[in-house]
Specification:
Length: about 750
Amino acid sequence: MPDSKMDETKKKKKKTAECCGYPISIFFIVVNEFCERFSYYGMRAVLVLYFRYFLLWDDDLATSIYHAFVALCYLTPILGAIIADSWLGKFKTIIYLSIVYAVGQVVMAVSTIHDITDANRDGTPDNFTLHIALSMLGLVLIALGTGGIKPCVAAFGGDQFQEHQSRQLNTFFSVFYLCINAGSLLSTLITPVLRAQECGIHTQQQCYPLAFGVPAALMVVSLVVFIAGSGMYTKTAPEGNIMGSVCKCIWFALNNRFRHRSDIYPKREHWMDWAEEKYDKLLIAQIKMVLKVLFLYIPLPMFWTLFDQKGSRWTLQATTMTGDFGGFVLQPDQMQTVNPILILTLVPIMDRIIFPLIKKCGLNFSPLKRMTVGMLFAATAFIAAALVQMEIDKTLPNFPSSSESQLKVVNMHSESLIVTVPSQEPLLIGSFEVQHTSKHTTAVSHWCFTISSHVVFPQSSPDYITFDQQDIRLAFNTTPEINKDLSLIKGSRQTLIIPSEPAEMYLKEDIKSKPKEGKNAVRFVNGWTAYLNITNLESSLQPSETSNYTLVSQGMRKFTLTDGIQSCEFSRKFGFGSSYTFLIPSDLFSTDCESIKEIEDMQPNSVHMALQIPQYFLITTGEVMFSVTGLQFSYSQAPKNMKSVLQAGWLCTNAVGNIIVLIVAELGKLPKQWAEYVLFASLLVAVSIIFSIMAYFYTYIDPAEIEAEILKQQETDPDKKKKKETLEMEEKENEQEIKQTKI
Ligand SMILES: CC(C)C[C@H](N)C(=O)N1CCC[C@H]1C(=O)O
């Protein structure tokens, strides 16, 4: 940094107002971060639902675009850091990119107003292309904004502290992290509630404009708060195109090293020293500092690969568990809020109790050691997740493999039927009853036939089901006897519905995995003599027809059945993740719906979501040790003119982790989920061992001290003038290049 500029900064630093040892400007920065994180996580909480239920995308497209957006948000920090450190400085970069961000949020909120294209006022947009285009534009702007400002805000916060405030500087990063999580916690609780409201000009629909509008408003507040602190900030001016100089210096060092590869040339301590002929010692030393830290970051994405699965695999795991806590019911996706809640409690505990205690015990718990231990905590979290998964697996239904089929027979005929399957006991199926046989595999290797075994009804009269090698054949004791050949779908569960007229029997595919989001799948078989309208079903049910599954949430659910003349109500309490087929008998209305029979296609979840708390506790403890420390470390080890760049490098580890999750999700899973968890835990243990070895060879530095020393040396260095001239020439060349490109 030119000496005049450094003096200017020093002068400004002296003027900063303090409160309890902290610069007052910090208040504006942490409030800004709180609002920004509220805005980001609030918008993210309803994004997939917006894709799925407003834009009507399928699950795969919705989740892919969502993950691509998250990855982009953690890649754009590089851009923000380059703009800040090489061109605008952190303050202006934060302001300009926050404007981009707020505009993005507003565009996103506008894209969710269905009325803007709903000319026929039917409640659905008429021009999806416009809504998609607007939302994609909004998301790109948001990604640019949120990612762009992220490395700058943390580094800008650090810049506010003076040399004598190093203890406060460390606490700042913890408070900064607390604000991130307080903002994200509040918004992930609030925005889904806002979405569930109904609003609209012509028709009332789910209120996405409010769910996206409130985060947009918070982003504007964030910007206003940041500008309000303007007069109090310590603003370090950028030192020209530092990133351009860094790239050129590295390129020159590599080239020069290659040109002098022969043994006749004496070796130099570091390959970057080959830039000494042309470049300033200070720049070379600064590049060395950054490269050393970036090298250390190579194994770190693995931590985020595990961490980011909280939102995907762990939430899926929660959908196979029960969230009934007695007084309140927790939905599977709400389990994720345990992470920010724990952050809010664990950060102060670590900072105030655990770390000071470790220090008192005389142990040197250096930042890199903390990060290694953080990784080990995350690995144990995955072992805990594997143990929970094993418990869940014990309660899951025995789904057919890809070479098996499962069949269940439902008899809605007025008389009992008997079914025989070769090499099995004959089965009696009473009228309006269900019969399931135990698993049976035929001798033919490519054709496995399994009949599930949930409920066993008493057997009384003999009749037969037969099946040949490819298909099954059913014979019924009706006059004349009915024979039916059926082809079962491999890897599927099917129900054979035998209606009041057995000759019209048909197969209906059953649900073959746990219903989504912990909901319950229900369907009805209409044994009533006329069509029926049932609440929650898409269309009316013809006589003998079986409806498709419809998903209902946990709790007491009421169904009204009507044939247009008579009606009755049927209520049932549901747990999580169950599936039922309800048989509607011919005496439906005379029994006031009481005679409806239920078949449990799938048991409700029985393992409690509270069992996930240990894994959340472990991963969050790991996060506090890894992420908060990483943030501090990236700031403290960066040269003053590349603080944002190193913050961006740190955030990049998160982006790469996210991308790995995407790839892993695409590549598919191990057959057993618990095995996948153990695999990830083992990989992270291996990576943390590698990281600890790398950390062992890392020497902590005080960049400011090194920089001051080099500057002092250069004062007396006769070569200094020459190198300064070269640098100035370079800068002029740069400027000319830029001018020419503009022309
Ligand atoms: C996922 C939580 C809502 C937030 C998380 N605990 C967290 O603070 N972060 C995850 C990535 C880095 C950091 C953030 O800056 O959001």
